[in-house]
Amino acid sequence: MLPKLEIIANFGSVIGNIDLAAAKERGVVVTNTPVDPAFVMENVADLAMGLLIGVMRRLHENDRFVRAGKWPREASLVGRGLGGKTCGIVGLGRIGRGVAKRAEACGMSICYHGPHQKQDVTYQYYPDLEDMARQSDCLVIACRATPATRKLVDAKILDALGPEGYLVNVARGSIIDEQALLGALKSRRIAGAGLDVFWDEPRVPAELMEMEHVVIVPHIGSAIREIREERGRKLLANLRARFAGKPVLTPVESSLA
Fold this sequence. Notes:
Layout: E1 7-9, H1 20-26, E2 29-31, H2 37-56, H3 59-67, E3 86-90, H4 94-105, E4 109-113, E5 124-125, H5 129-135, E6 138-141, H6 155-161, E7 166-169, H7 178-186, E8 192-195, H8 206-209, E9 214-216, H9 225-243
Parallel strand pairs: 1-2, 3-4, 3-6, 4-5, 6-7, 7-8, 8-9
Helix pairs in contact: 2-4, 5-6
């Protein structure tokens, strides 16, 4: 198929999307559209704070309250303030640090959990996640998805977070035991959740969609117009270069013959 194919210009990452070995064998050039990781991580941190504010202040519930015409005859829904609360961050990498900076600006105290204590920050470190959850008003999941972090946030951690605690996940769905989360939300063993990622995307459990105290968005951590436009410019630049007989700008090196 496609015997004249010269180039695969991919919008975004090629990981898991393209058979690079087959492309190399056929001499097909593969390009991607890399974006400054720091810029991506900052925007994911923005979303994490948006989800945290949204679920704690009950913004989405109040939006639906007004749209349903309830305001003239009922009292609005009262949420929780961020100031003076403790934000526990799971994974203090670029995203986690971005969340910490934003949460501090909202008057929150910061603590974190990870495999190692960071020597360049003064935030309180908890080697035990359950201990941190018990001391936190919210948990923000910002760590990598690895075998070690699979179902890291389970029923034990959610119970430690408690009925006044909130959970935000902008990392990967596999880090949370989804069934444990559903159970904790149904029984109100945690106060609410803001979720950008899910176990089996794009399929979201129907139970989550029915829960008023859950904010759900479709994995949009880095999905902003500025990043999309930059990727589009790079994709077109690669195509123009190839068909002008020039080297492409952002080749995926393992695909080259």
